[in-house]
């Protein structure tokens, strides 16, 4: 009997180790190894001669570098500040108050993330551009106001649109899990609301808060979509990469600049690692979920705040819808539904749209499974600490890799039929090359491209679930996968669904990596939006964007419906006695 | 748990239902009897179906898979796929890009049938040319008449006009570091003034009037069309197209002549070159499809009887300024470095 128990235990650990190593291999092959060929290019010229650090020194000596770097830093800091602030208040309103129409606000919380970046730019230009509705005071009916869209201001607005939902998703999952008992204790000690906020709420979500700072900072530091369109002459590092790679096909220099871009994310990882040391989990087996109470003042302030945010976002969306209906902005504003036919543009009709929907579904399903399982293995177990640290580190990298760099690296790696073994005259078949030219490569690229936010949101949730569960199961000789299926998954279901919908909406709109990878037979709509706009067909581009937004919204509604049932389930798990 | 179960089951059912149709996408091609070729192109999206009509009619057994992106993206893709090329043919990509690709050994020289019809300046002079042109695209200004009038600006007629103080802050232009169109304007100015130094002096003067350097060739025209800025330095086809769309644009072809580049075809070098790829290249310079090109481009590589599209100058060939494509390609890096040093990043937005 004793023997059997021991065997079980060591089997359990062996299985865990194998799984951890398996995930390590996957993560290396999908994140690190594809990046190597491109990064090696940063040490060579465009004819593949080794030139050492010359690219790096050349770039530093370029007088516009310092300016781009300072500009990127300014953009990132400003965006981070506003995005986290807005994201936090919105998330707080959703989770900790009796916000009126909460379901509505919840459904629309990620709305700005549904809009393809190019469409955001179109919308912003129609509202704040030189001929914009606000700039011209609604065709001259009221005094106009020019915010000087092109340049710093435009970039900041565009980036906040893109970043605040990302902060929101992390903060919601952080704020969701909380222990009512702490607040009750504070109340019986007559603590003021401010004190409760500072001593319970903030410390409890410090991990999520910290992560949303990093995420927003890195995203806005590396994004080129927004600055490309509304940046004017305001140069940032990411547009420098665009100029090198797309404008001049200078991959070596593009790779060099992207290494500079990786610096903040490595710093973030190091800080984060130290920060985590004293992390205690919040949800123990005895926790009681937080139940917000009515507070007229707080609730109405929150209502006003959230409404203002949504009005802005929906305003931009409406102008996109308008753009899809208007004949010649701003000179002939008669309306027509003509542009929703897509038959006279691109020749593909609705095919790219359906390809995109399927791609996004696949990404959501496979991505969520992969990301959650990875986070679970990294977060919950003790064996192979070094390898788990490496997995964690690799998982934080994708966010700092600009999409076009990822796309190019994927071409270089996945389009290679075989690898040559150094020093030997020998070739190994590259099994991953089978993926190239299929839907698989698109799905994989999406999974990796958006991996970090999903990973962090999964670890944030997992961290808050007490390791006690695993420890108890271990002492009860229950294998870990049973605990995983019976406790961890049900408890994290809201986050899991959140990750799925995040993957879905991002895959619907993504352009930068996909534009290099999509096969001839699988046109995708985010790319056809770019092409339609290229061909001067803004209205059709806007029409397709509208369709994409509506699809994401529809999926979000399904999500709302499922998660409402699911969160009832998971609260049962947190407090089985209550129901 | 029951609900969770039904959820998973639901997902599984949807998954299986999608599977057969999904499979075809997942694994791409396969199964079709037709010969198929993959064509990379930077031609305008809305034109491609028109052009292809005659090919589809004459070669029903060849399936053409089109990948359409902007010049920069197509070129980057070609170069990145160097080790295992996916494209069989490049159709209508800037000759300057094809020069780069050829330099890296990606192109197989091929003399398509009917090559003798192609004007000499529109092809690589080699016996088996690495690139063969189909049309030429030339720089032009888009001037928004309504906005110009509102701001009391006269319509600029020449490159020299653009440096007049009245246009300060009213001109947008493609950034030559991110766009081929931007580069052809810059390269043309450097080749068409008495010395290169004079060229830079001109660009210095132009720079003081520029509101924005934009990251795409067509963007300045689009911005002008929407009235964001009254004057956009872009290219002719774009300008004429917007005029025909009904935007209040005047297409101006500068008096001193336009910068230009050729849109050209090439055969990609790979282990198995498909006969269908050569068939496509033969067709792509045939008189029939050239007539289609001529409906949107003023200058085609193969002379046609199609009347000049509305909006172009009456003798378009005369509009071409002196331009040595080879010179522009060889000096590109040096010119862009100098350009960036002078104008990029220093111009903080106001």
What features would you describe in this structure?
The complex is a heterodimer of chains A (579) and B (350). Chain A is mainly alpha-helical. In chain A, 71% of the residues lie in helices and 2% in strands. In chain A, strands 1-2 form a two-stranded antiparallel sheet. The longest helix of chain A has 40 residues, at 2-41. Chain A is globular and about 70 Å long. Chain B is α/β, with parallel strands linked by helices and 350 residues long. In chain B, 42% of the residues lie in helices and 18% in strands. Chain B is built from 14 helices and ten strands. Chain B has helices at 2-26, 48-58, 71-80, 95-103, 145-150, 180-192, 196-209, 219-225, 236-244, 275-284, 287-296, 316-319, 325-330, 332-343, and strands spanning 35-41, 62-68, 89-94, 107-108, 132-144, 171-174, 210-214, 231-235, 249-252, 260-268. In chain B, strands 1, 2, 3, 4, 5, 6, 7, 8, 9 and 10 form a ten-stranded mixed beta sheet that branches. In chain B, strand 1, helix 2 and strand 2 (62-68) form a beta-alpha-beta unit. Chain B is globular and about 60 Å long. Chain B starts with a helix and ends in a 7-residue tail after the last helix. The model of chain B is unreliable at 1-5, 15-32 and 346-350 (pLDDT under 50). Chains A and B meet through helix 3, helix 13, helix 16, helix 18 and helix 24 of A and helix 1, strand 2, helix 3, strand 7 and helix 8 of B.
Index terms:
heterodimer, A: mainly alpha, two-stranded antiparallel ribbon, 25 helices, 4 strands, 2% strand, disordered C terminus, B: 350 residues, ten-stranded mixed β-sheet, 10 strands, globular
Q: Which descriptor suits the 3D outline of chain B?
A: globular
**If you average the pLDDT of chain B, what whole number results?**
87
> What's the assembly state of these chains?
heterodimer
Evaluate the radius of gyration of chain A. Answer: 25 Å
Order of helices and strands of chain B: HEHEHEHEEHEHHEHEHEEHHHHH
Task: Name the poorly predicted regions of chain B.
Answer: 1-5, 15-32, 346-350
In the sheet with the most strands of chain A, the strands line up as: 1-2
Radius of gyration of chain B: 23 Å
Biggest protein-protein contact in the assembly: A-B, 79 and 76 residues
Gap between N and C termini of chain B: 60 Å
Biggest sheet statistics of chain B:
10 strands, mixed
Broad shape of chain A: globular
Strand content of chain B: 15-25%
Ends apart, CA distance between termini of chain A: 38 Å
**Portion of residues in helices of chain B?**
40-55%
Number of helices of chain B: 14
